[in-house]
Design brief:
It contains 12 helices and 24 strands. It has helices at 11-19, 46-59, 74-86, 99-109, 170-184, 201-214, 226-234, 244-255, 258-266, 279-289, 406-414, 448-458; strands spanning 35-39, 42-45, 66-69, 90-93, 113-116, 128-130, 150-156, 164-169, 191-194, 217-220, 239-242, 269-272, 294-299, 303-307, 327-331, 347-352, 359-360, 372-380, 386-391, 396-399, 402-405, 419-429, 433-442, 467-470. The chain is globular, with a radius of gyration of 22 Å. Bound molecules: methylmalonyl-coenzyme A and adenosine monophosphate (AMP). Residues 156, 273-276, 295, 297-300, 319, 374, 376, 388, 391, 403 line the site of adenosine monophosphate (AMP). Adenosine monophosphate (AMP) binds at residues 156, 273-276, 295, 297-300, 319, 374, 376, 388, 391, 403.
């Protein structure tokens, strides 16, 4: 028997596929005592994960869709597995969401309930399903869901307006994780370590569902710490997934720690994504650890599109070729397809494949003949490698791998009684890649810290401005549009 990418499947996989053909996680059905999840507070074997998820899945019976408070805890992984096995679409929520964000998502998605770990609660009036890992185990129900059924609804920031819920079908998750397995020779022998938040695709789908689909395990550090990542890689972990800010912090720490440098060297694969890893950081890691980092490129709406393969030379500055079942094309500003592969001609990257979402919840925006316009500008090499050169919309700020819409922060600032007018830009930041900067016209007294705390209270704290600059007026053009270029950063 061969899998979707033509590789022979191991005997274990064959057995698992025959036992539970429609589960996204074949190893759950084996009752194995092998580890599935390790968080600082708890380790769960596949048998324990199946038992805990079975209990939650039973509680979800008959529900249309549910939300999950996605803390970096084992209960979040259990809740995600339970919902996927039960065939109930799941909306992961940032546990630090501000009131405005939470209200928007709850109103837009109208979940029947929210899944929470004991001792946590959501500031919204919804029935709660408590994930109690100590409650008696229950068998998982047979999966009753089709490939095209919605599995996850992940909210993503746009440049204007509130976040939109990208509806990802089971087919996208399965095919994308299998395409990544092909690119990275990722098997059940791999142990992935990371400390990514579990309310985005990177940490939840690639970093948690990925290892579980392979039948290996995931070690989640709870919060990012270079020394803890190093210890994991010196021990059982074989792959590290992180955003560039984490690799930058790892390189900083490795400058003074030969142990950490050695641990990075012995990893089977170091993977960076969610933002560009600068060539200088690639070189620093190469110098310190004597090995490269591979980049992959994805979006909430598309999951992963491209990846440097594990068996290829490191390729700093590129995000690799398209995954095995993903098509890409570049379009010029008139919408014409650019038939070039010269690593120079820039176009907007469009993607098509089984990795794509179904659409946005409650928003009828159709794909164009199956193609999705990413908004990312790119070039293509003759060997198919893609180089990202920026985004079309510079009002989307990429800070630490989090995408933050300027409009959302401007709206929150304007709600402060002392703020007369506000504009938000991104500025280069050594640690975060980009930093949120607010430009504010005051009507009455307010301090920088007060405004930062105000935004951190309205929205998730990672969206707070890191700097506030006070002005007498915002520069505007004759149509009244703020000229952000004149504030120190170009914008369209
Ligand atoms: C600070 N904090 C505050 C305030 N100031 N809380 C309330 N009010 C304030 N005024 C708190 C924060 O909540 C947090 O608490 C702590 O201070 C530090 O926050 P922050 O400064 O934001 O953290 P950081 O150190 O700057 O974080 C760096 C990071 C983070 C760890 C690299 O940016 C990160 O996790 N990035 C990953 C993003 C990601 O996964 N992106 C994937 C999405 P506490 O310390 O208690 O937490 S993109 C995606 O999925 C696509 C598909 C893709 O391609 O991957
Ligand atoms: P999100 O909107 O959170 O799904 O983030 C998707 C965006 O992250 C993409 O459109 C890219 O702009 C950016 N991104 C993801 N991976 C990379 C990468 N390896 N290099 C540069 N940008 C990336």
């Amino acid at each position: 028997m061969r899998d979707a990418v033509g590789e022979p499947l191991s005997d274990l996989c064959v057995r698992m596929q025959l036992m539970a053909a429609t589960s996204l996680f074949p190893r759950l059905a084996t009752g194995s005592d092998a580890p599935a999840l390790r968080f600082p507070e708890r380790t769960l074997s596949y048998a324990q994960l199946a038992g805990a998820a079975g209990r939650v899945a039973a509680a979800l019976s008959g529900m249309r869709r549910v939300a999950m408070l996605a803390e970096s805890r084992p209960e979040t992984a259990v809740a995600a597995v339970a919902a996927l096995e039960a065939g109930v679409p799941l909306i992961p929520l940032n546990p630090r969401s501000g009131e405005a964000e939470l209200t928007h998502i709850v109103d837009d998605a109208a979940p029947d309930a929210v899944l929470v770990a004991p001792g946590t609660e959501l500031g919204a009036d919804l029935p709660q399903v408590i994930i109690d890992l100590d409650a008696p185990a229950q068998s998982l129900p047979a999966v009753d869901a089709e490939d095209e059924d919605p599995a996850l609804i992940v909210y993503t920031s746009g440049t204007t307006g509130p976040p939109k819920g990208a509806v990802l079908p089971r087919r996208a998750i399965a095919s994308n994780l299998d395409a990544l397995a092909d690119a990275w020779a990722w098997t059940e022998t791999d142990v992935v370590v990371h400390a990514l938040p579990l309310f985005h695709v990177h940490g939840l789908v690639v970093g948690t569902l990925g290892p579980l689909r392979r039948g290996g395990w995931v070690m989640h550090l709870g919060r990012f710490d270079p020394a803890a990542a190093g210890e994991a890689l010196a021990g059982e972990a074989t792959m590290l997934f992180g955003v560039p800010t984490m690799y930058r912090r790892l390189a900083d720490a490795a400058e003074d720690s030969p142990e950490l440098a050695a641990a990075l060297r012995q990893a089977r694969l170091l993977v960076s994504g969610s933002a560009a890893l600068p060539a200088a950081e690639h070189e620093r890691l190469q110098r310190l650890a004597g090995r490269g980092v591979v980049e992959r490129y994805g979006m909430t709406e598309t999951l992963m599109n491209t990846a440097v393969r594990a068996d290829a030379e490191p390729a700093p500055g590129t995000v690799g070729p398209p995954l095995s079942d993903v098509e890409v094309r570049l379009l010029d500003e008139d919408g014409a397809v650019l038939d070039v592969a010269d690593d120079e001609t820039m176009g907007e990257l469009h993607v098509r494949g089984p990795n794509l979402f179904l659409g946005y919840l409650n928003r009828p925006e159709a794909l164009n003949d199956g193609w999705f316009a990413t908004g990312d500008m790119a070039t293509r090499r003759s060997d198919g490698y893609i180089r990202l050169v920026g985004r079309q919309a510079t009002d989307l700020i990429n800070s630490g791998g989090f995408k933050i819409g300027a409009g959302e922060i401007e709206g929150a600032l304007r709600e402060h009684p002392a703020v007369g007018d506000a504009a938000v830009t991104g500025e280069p930041d050594d640690d975060l890649g980009e930093r949120v900067v607010a430009w504010v016209v005051l009507e009455s007294d307010a301090t920088e810290d007060e405004l930062i705390d105000h935004v951190a209270g309205q929205l998730a704290p990672h969206k707070r401005p890191r700097t506030v600059r006070f002005l007498d007026d915002l520069p505007r053009n004759e149509l009244g549009k703020v000229q952000k270029k004149r504030l120190g950063k170009s914008s369209d």
